[in-house]
Design a protein that fits this description.
Blueprint lengths: L7 E6 L6 H5 L8 E4 L10 E4 L2 E2 L34 H5 L4 H11 L3 E5 L3 H4 L7 H19 L6 E6 L5 H15 L3 E4 L15 H10 L2 E5 L8 H6 L3 H22 L2 H4 L4 E5 L5 H20 L7 H8 E5 L6 H8 L4 E3 L13 H8 L2 H8 L1 H6 L3 H16 L1
Parallel strand pairs: 1-5, 5-6, 6-7, 7-8, 8-9, 9-10, 10-11
Antiparallel strand pairs: 2-3, 3-4
Helix pairs in contact: 5-6, 6-7, 9-11
């Protein structure tokens, strides 16, 4: 708990080990997946080449680099929050293992965390990937993260990586992960996949299966995907792409889900918009509502609710604790439709002060709703919190 409040980290990350595919990938695919360890013996994933192509598009220089211009830090306005990597020494020393993961939970006051990959965000983020190879890569990651979570399965949960290059195979992997490995849902990047976007009827079986299994669909963007239009727009400048991809790709996904009727025809589908902050949500919902009277009858006659009603029934959007607009956003979309991501152990995270930053910036009532918001998103009950506390107490007793 955090100051007596239940806390679900809706989006905490792991650092996959360099030998993950040596140990977990089906041997029939190993000649198509080449890996190298990080330089200098650092922990974490090194370079991954799949069918001759690097796992991400960060390595292609283009024409957007500007000349260097030195600006003294004293000439810059201070930014919100503070970041330090000093607190990660405990994790680096343990090579980001599961013991370190649980230590991270305790440092933030987290009861239950849902885990997401680091390398895996861009692992299969390309069009035209062989669907069976996509499945093999996802199975390797999902089997590894399952084993990782066994260190403390009531505190560590995971979202399955899905091979979305074929919807039937994606359904098969989701069912395996939920029924055999205990996954609490899936994660998918919001980018266009093989020419199909999220309002396409092609995805209906996958939406329906999430409803049937009562698990969550999590949109989680990253940077450097080969198929991302942000690469085309902004080239090698990661600053541009990091700002644009996390917000804009999420906005486009929410537009597709609302106007395309996904929530109308899949009313029990729970969807999280993760690690993209969320102050964009009320403005986008207002924009959709502005056009609603003009276009609904002619272009979306199947819709029976307002955009805000769909969001407040089906959706959650995360914050990272230090955004100055959190209280204002909560007043517009409801704090109970918000959740919080520690983003541990990434360089742009505010860990281990994510929860402290939240508590210092909003009312206790709002903070309590947001800290527990991930329980609604991921379907956790009081029984889950009880079991997580038993696990934590047992560890402390030892």
């Amino acid at each position: 708990m955090k100051d007596g409040m239940q806390f679900v980290d809706c989006d905490m990350h792991v650092m996959e080990p360099a030998d993950i595919f040596d140990r977990y990938l089906d041997p029939k695919f190993k000649d198509r997946v080449l890996t190298s360890a990080p330089a200098g013996g650092k922990p974490g994933m090194g370079r991954v080449v799949i069918d001759g192509l690097s796992r991400n598009g960060d390595e292609e220089p283009q024409q957007y680099r500007k000349p260097n211009r030195s600006v003294a830090s004293s000439d810059r306005q201070p930014l919100s929050g503070s970041r330090s990597t000093d607190y990660l020494n405990f994790a680096i020393d343990r090579r980001y293992n599961a013991e370190a993961q649980v230590m991270g939970l305790e440092m933030e006051g987290i009861d239950i965390a849902v885990l997401f990959p680091t390398m895996g965000l861009s692992l299969i983020a390309r069009d035209g990937l062989d669907p069976l190879l996509s499945e093999g890569l996802c199975q390797a990651y999902n089997n590894w993260i399952y084993d990782f979570c066994q260190h403390s399965p009531h505190e560590l949960k995971f979202a399955a990586m899905l091979p979305y290059h074929d919807v039937t195979i994606a359904c098969r992997e989701l069912k395996r992960c939920v029924t055999e490995l205990g996954a609490v849902g899936s994660f998918i990047r919001p980018n266009l996949v093989n020419g199909r976007y999220w309002h396409s009827n092609y995805w209906n079986p996958l939406y329906s299966l999430h409803e049937e299994l009562d698990v969550t669909w999590g949109f989680h963007e990253g940077t450097g995907a080969w198929y991302s239009h942000m690469n085309t727009l902004y080239g090698e400048n990661r600053f541009y792409r990091h700002v644009a991809s996390h917000w804009i790709e999420m906005q486009q996904a929410l537009i597709a889900m609302v106007i395309g009727g996904v929530f109308e025809f899949h009313p029990k589908l729970r969807v999280g918009f993760l690690e993209a902050q969320n102050s964009w949500v009320p403005g986008l919902l207002s924009r959709i509502e502005w056009d609603y009277p003009q276009y609904r009858d002619s272009h979306a006659p199947y819709l029976s609710m307002t955009p805000k009603e769909y969001f407040q029934r089906n959706c959650w959007a995360s914050v990272e604790g230090s955004e100055p607009e959190i209280e204002a956003t909560a007043s517009l979309i409801g704090a109970n439709r918000m959740c919080i991501s520690s983003d541990y152990p990434h360089f742009d995270s505010h860990f281990p002060n994510v929860s402290n930053n939240l508590l210092s910036g909003v009312s206790r009532e709002t903070a309590a709703a947001i800290l527990r918001g991930g329980a609604g998103l991921w379907g956790f009950t009081d029984e889950n919190f009880k079991n997580a506390k038993i696990a934590a107490d047992a560890r402390h007793a030892n």
